[in-house]
């Protein structure tokens, strides 16, 4: 199969430890680029964060961010944007906070929250080493009434908790009460909400069309529930060795895990 576009998830896939890309994976991505293959970061993270990684490893292909709610060029060009409505944002925040769960909102620039994020939050961790002009913006508001200035910018809501049963219950409740929202998990301790039509799968289809690549020429690589939609539309679906069982079930190929060059193994397997 003649692969022309590779869409790669970040956390649990491209990144070894939520921060670093293995040298072998960087070399494989460069190899694919040199063969004329587009390589796109396809992530639940905010655009400004994903853009930093794209620049670091030399990617020029547009970025899929916020689980597909935004597609943007590495030069800042907006290709697709599907923000949440303020009413849905408030419903999500109120429901999760009533349950005592940490919830926050994401925009291309960074995070909006009603509470200071814990120091372990990945964006806070990254900001410790980033120069001021590259830091991920972290906005803390006092009440949900202060969301109005961000209307049209909020792309995703994130809920984090350690009680898996509680998360599953609230996740199911949102799916039932808000069928116009996409509700998926990107990690075993969270779930995320986007406006309907925002998924990695839909974004991959749009990006492929934008690049004039047919669906059977697309390879997608991922590990979590939020990657399922893109794996299902790919010509070649690759699951990481550390992927969930559900992801492995839909895969055409299971590669090594994210700490042992899984991305590079998949690239060399299919890009000759």
UniProtKB/TrEMBL annotation:
SUPFAM superfamilies hit by this protein: HAD-like
InterPro entries (alphabetical): Cof (IPR000150), HAD-like_sf (IPR036412), HAD-SF_hydro_IIB (IPR006379), HAD_sf (IPR023214)
PROSITE patterns: COF_1
CDD domains, alphabetized: HAD_Pase (cd07516)
Origin superkingdom: Bacteria
A Pfam family matched in the record: Hydrolase_3
Gene3D superfamilies the record matches: 3.30.1240.10, HAD superfamily/HAD-like (3.40.50.1000)
UniProt name for this protein: Haloacid dehalogenase
Organism, as annotated: Turicibacter faecis
Organism taxonomic ancestry: Bacteria, Bacillati, Bacillota, Erysipelotrichia, Erysipelotrichales
């Amino acid at each position: 199969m003649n692969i022309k576009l590779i869409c790669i998830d970040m956390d649990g896939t491209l990144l070894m430890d939520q921060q670093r890309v293995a040298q072998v994976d960087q070399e494989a991505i460069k190899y694919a680029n040199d063969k004329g293959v587009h390589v796109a970061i396809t992530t639940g993270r905010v655009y400004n964060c994903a853009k930093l990684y794209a620049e670091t490893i030399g990617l020029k292909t547009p970025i899929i961010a916020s689980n597909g709610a935004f597609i943007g060029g590495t030069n800042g060009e907006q290709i697709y944007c599907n923000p949440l409505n303020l009413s849905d944002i408030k419903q999500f925040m109120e429901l999760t906070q009533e349950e005592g769960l940490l919830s926050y909102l994401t925009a291309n620039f960074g995070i909006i929250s009603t509470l200071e994020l814990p120091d372990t939050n990945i964006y806070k961790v990254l900001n410790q080493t980033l120069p001021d002009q590259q830091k991920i913006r972290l906005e803390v508001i006092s009440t949900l009434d202060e969301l109005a200035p961000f209307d049209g910018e909020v792309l995703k809501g994130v809920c984090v908790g350690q009680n898996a049963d509680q998360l599953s219950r609230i996740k199911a409740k949102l799916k039932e009460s808000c069928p116009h929202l996409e509700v998926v998990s990107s990690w075993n301790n969270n779930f995320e909400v986007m406006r309907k039509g925002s998924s990695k799968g839909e974004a991959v289809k749009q990006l492929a069309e934008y690049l004039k690549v047919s669906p059977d020429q697309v390879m997608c690589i991922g590990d979590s529930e939020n990657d399922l939609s893109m794996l299902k539309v790919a010509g070649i679906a690759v699951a990481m060795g550390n992927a969930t069982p559900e992801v492995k079930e839909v895969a055409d190929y299971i590669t090594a895990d994210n700490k042992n060059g899984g991305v590079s193994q998949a690239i060399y397997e299919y890009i000759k």
